[in-house]
Amino acid sequence: MTFSLILMALSATLSSAVPLSGNWSSISPSPDIHWHSCYNDTLQCTRLLLPLDWPAHENTTTSPPLPPPLSEQDATVAIAIIKLPAAVPRTHPTYAGPIFTNPGGPGGSGVDFLLRLGRYLQRVVDKPGTRRYDIVSFDPRGVGLSTPAVDCFADNPAARDALFLEGRGTWGLDRGDSAITYSKAVMQAYGQRCKNSKGARVLAYVGTPSVARDIVAMADKIDEERRRSIDADTYPADDNVEQRQLELKRSTATDPQDVVRVQYMGFSYGTILGNYLASMFPGRLGRMLLDGVCDIHDYVSGPGWLNHLYDTDELFDTFLHGCHLAGPSLCALTISSDSSSLDLRERLLDFLTSLDTQPQPVLSSDSTIVILSGNDVRTLIGYSLYSPLTYFQSFSKTLSAAMTGNLTVLADALLRGGYVPNHSSQATCSTPGPLQDTPTGIEGLHAVLCSDAIDVTSMDTAWWSDYIRKQLSFSSIFGAYWASLRFACAGWRFRANWSFKGPFTTPTPDSHRLAGRPEAPILFLTSRLDPVTPLSNARLMAANHHDAAVVIQESLGHTALISAPSRCTAKIVADYFHLGTVPDSEMSCQEDCGPWDVDCHLFNHEPSQDMTAANFLDATALRVFRQDQQQLRLPKHPLGV
């Protein structure tokens, strides 16, 4: 459910905000960690070689059986890893190690995520004078800057857009059996295209169990590099450092209580990845925070993505109610004659119904043709609910303009968000951003989602019709679009080489690092009203893990930490990473400000001109936030699905 807030549009936005250079092509992948300065020398980057096929590498039992062995050149993946270093040296007594982050998806770029939110998260967890952390993120195998990439259209990117356009004419999966039948044919063609692509052999090796194992390996390798670096600084160059490191590695490997413990923050789908990590490797768990919680049982063995829209329409109604209370100065949708938010709701639903009945031909600002349907506008509304701080005020202006005749603003929003392919000269000839030389499709999402979950390729029209009906019963606003995410698996032809179906639980934590046990309980966070990961999921998942706790932030939007600032939530999180303790019972925290307050955002001060790592990221994040507001960037899959 990667929220990264705006990850799909982040690369282009970042490149216009500040000059960035990751210089990833200059970093040679290695089986060991070698950090390189990157992004204005404010961050550190590396590319780590890991086994493509973990079960074969470690001789573990898997189901289904392993595919034929790959050639030598295909035996590894190179994982792109990025680090925001701690504010103190690694030898300092307050240095507390790395915290791994995942923004969701599946298929969300951790590199993009750290560039946008790394400094904010570091401020949340740090306790100056007591604990200082590295913030680490990565592009999961097959995604973004990690190689080989999951890309079914590498030889012809325009074919991806052509396939996408094939499906737009149905106006949505809720338009009846004919729309389902036609759309299934589109998905079957998509699956065939991926099967025939040059990168097809990678598609079975990007499932969540493999990514969870990657995290354990990354933690070990980062710790090895830290020890190696400290050793080199401590002992003379002519000492036998290699022999000492070998002895250290051997002693660590034989002492299960001294293994490297993973500290992790996962958002949206990142909570699924975290659940896999905790359940498969409980003895490697140090601290784990899961925010914006997905139902792992529905994801793995249920219909899939079905238990996610319980609170969506209530959040939509809360948006309308808040709009009415805020008044025309902050919310352009409301008018002086409205007696309540019900008047506003009626106008908006009438507008949607008119587009359902008669889609409109619209030219965008750059003259791109867009056929605007009610399904398009509902999808934009649904994604605006992800980040009320960013979108409630600005999107109300867009909706108001559209409802009074200016449909161009909605066409522009669809193009900016990637809902309609944009082949204008401005879009295709602009200077590429630092991350735009990587695949931009969503095959990475499907490669993980479809192969982790049950196989739905044999499901008939009646099954899909019932599935879509259930999604619509949960949310009339977002149900049809949400159903399309799982529907993409209707023609997917790949199963993960490594399957883990649970149990998704952890043993009783032990702060003394008893072998096989987590060091601390898991902390689950949620906003009060989340459009795609409801509060009920957090409670359900916490019940499966010994001593876990749920903290509810009284805010609106996807995830707690990213939906609104809250000193209360931040203190609980910082204390948790420091002490490993969670509240004794479910508790709630108030937000510091909300979507109808003036200039409310996560970045709590104007950064100085001193381009330290912290200030560089603050400047970048704040500029991107304001550009998103002003330009109404509503990309697909912000912070995950």
TrEMBL record:
The record's listing under SUPFAM superfamilies reads:
alpha/beta-Hydrolases
Q: Which domain of life is it from?
A: Eukaryota
Q: Does the keyword Hydrolase apply?
A: yes
| An annotated Gene Ontology molecular function | hydrolase activity
Keyword set, alphabetical order: Hydrolase, Signal
Pfam families this protein is in? Abhydrolase_4
Q: Which residues form the signal peptide?
A: 1-17
Would the keyword Protease be found if you checked this record's keyword annotation? Answer: no
Q: Which Gene3D superfamilies match?
A: alpha/beta hydrolase (3.40.50.1820)
The entry's family comment says: Belongs to the peptidase S33 family.
Return the protein name.
Peptidase S33 tripeptidyl aminopeptidase-like C-terminal domain-containing protein
